[in-house]
Amino acid sequence: MADAELEEIRRARLAQLQQQAASRGGPSQEGGQEDQRRQAESERRSAIMSQILDPAAADRLGRIRLVKESRAVDIENRLMMLAQTGQIRQKVTEDQLKELLNAVAENQRKEEEEQKIVITRRKGGWDDDDDLLDL
Q1: What is the Cα–Cα distance from 132 to 88, expressed in whole angstroms?
Q2: In angstroms, rounded to a whole number, what is the distance separating the alpha carbons of residues 48 and 1?
Q3: How many CB atoms sit inside 10 A of residue 12's CB?
Q4: What is the pLDDT of residues 21-59, one digit of tens each?
Q5: Domain architecture of the chain: domains with CATH
Q6: What is the model's pLDDT at position 108?
Q7: All residues at 6 or more sequence positions from 74 whose CB lies less than 8 Å from its CB, including other chains
Q8: 52 and 87 in contact (C-beta within 8 Å)?
Q9: What is the pTM of this model?
């Protein structure tokens, strides 16, 4: 889709949301405006993802979203960053998405290993059984 078409779709959707809000009595609360903002952001992200991902990769990302929302959002953020910096020149295939997922999983494993706490117990000191032998 061309950028002009996407902008037209966004404007039409925003007009539709405003009309729905007006028919309900208007967004008198900040919550209504916040919902509209989230909806518009969601639509913007999905439009960008449809430009970046081929259908098979988009389907896989959708299945990931069903299982773990945070991982899907993280992958989307990375893809958007790569697209904005010009590192993505063509649509991302399912295999490329798998590679990105594996890289993210490897980074998370490394972070978890760095966060491990090791407890070492002292030997030869402060044993509760020693107190019983002194009686």
Answers
A1: 71
A2: 10
A3: 10
A4: 777 765 455 667 888 888 888 888 888 888 899 999 999
A5: 42-113 (1.10.8.140)
A6: 83
A7: 104
A8: no
A9: 0.57
